[in-house]
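Recap from last week: sequence in, structure out.
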Amino acid sequence: MKRASISQAKVIEALRKSLGERTHEAEALIAEGRLDYAVAALTSAIFLKPNEAELYRRRAELYVQMCDFKSAYLNYKRVISLSPNDAKSKHRMAGICYVRGKLLLNDEDFHTAEKAFAEAEKLSPTTMEYKMGSVHVMVRKNLLKSALLALNEILSHNQDFIEARLVRAKILIDSREILRAQSDLDIVDKIEADHPQLLRIRESLKNTANALRLEASANLMHGLYNKSLSSLNDSLLLDPRPDTYRLRATVLRHQEKYAESITDLNTALSIIKANEPKVLDKDAKNSKDVDDINKQLAITLNDVGVSLVGMRKYREAITCFRKAMTRNNQLPELPINLGDCYKQLDEFDNALKFYNLAYEMFSIDKTLKEELEDEYKTLLTKLGQLRFERGRRMFNNTNYIRADQEFSEAINLLPQIASLWFHRAEARLHLYDLVGSYLDFEKSTKLDPTFMAAVERFEWIKSKVNPQGPSMPKRGRGKFLARTNRQ
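Predicted structure tokens:
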């Protein structure tokens, strides 16, 4: 019995000595970077002492360094079976499960990945990142509602969990719930403004907003205003840029939503003012963006005025047109419309003032005259008619000199209108300018040989030169009305 005890003690001592040698050998090999040999040394040590948890833990760490996660997982699993309260090993095993789950997720092995993520969460239930594993699986499987519910639960326990907020923001963006997504992004921005994923999402949102803006422009060109408006609404939620507000204002103007259009344009101005205060303070006129917005405001106010004219609210329309001119005084339609309103109100002097202003715009800018050729011709007609009407009133008030002047201005604008020459001839007749009257009656009959009043007058005035001619027609020299559209 004594001999047996001595032999057993020697064996134990030999094993202990061999185990120590193997352990020291493994450490030396690790220091040399020979990890595969170190694993072999630790395996020999484990063979000598198979229930030593520390040996498995050390070998698991080597497998992690060698990226052999499957072997590392099995070794940590053995550590935990031998030492159930080893929190450090549980945490590391959870990390391996999580990494393994992500690799499986990339391979679209969703079922196995979900199991790996679940195990990671079980091993380390307080680690928020591991709770996200199952969420990633749901997103990849397009189970977005379930993913949102899971994220809501996670965030209810940790409001500042950045990854959960960013994932939820991406889901909400894809679901076009932009406001909710922006709320999550704003919170992340307060926590970590330079978070790489946040910056990538912000850049992606800008790109998406730009694509939506281009889509809206195309729809606007085809008259698809509702589609254009929908795209612009989403674009503004993603990236509230002043040019997007301007484009939406254009769409709203086409939809005759003038108040909303003006609000958008003022918002665009506010953004520019906030971003570029120095430019505006020094010289607002040199800011092209500001000028463009003011021009669009003028166009919108002009449209409001036109709609009021349609309702015969001329005073209100005048207010709109005048406000528009404070935004941009280079649009000829504004003074033309003001002239129309004043003419309807029988305020001929004001009407003439604004018609003349529009006429000067066309006279100064030859390109404008070419671009708006029809509008220019219409202006000439309106101005000529107004001059004629002023001349007619002067004539009826026996102010023949002023009548002659007004008819002359009308003729300069509309030289092909026979009735204008006829009426100036009448005015000159009252001024005893027989030669001038003779020439005007003659011109009137040449322009319109069927204009019988002019023919009779011309035949009569010729009798002043030829006594054998016909006597003066029975036509008084009193008041008369005439039509300026007679040619």
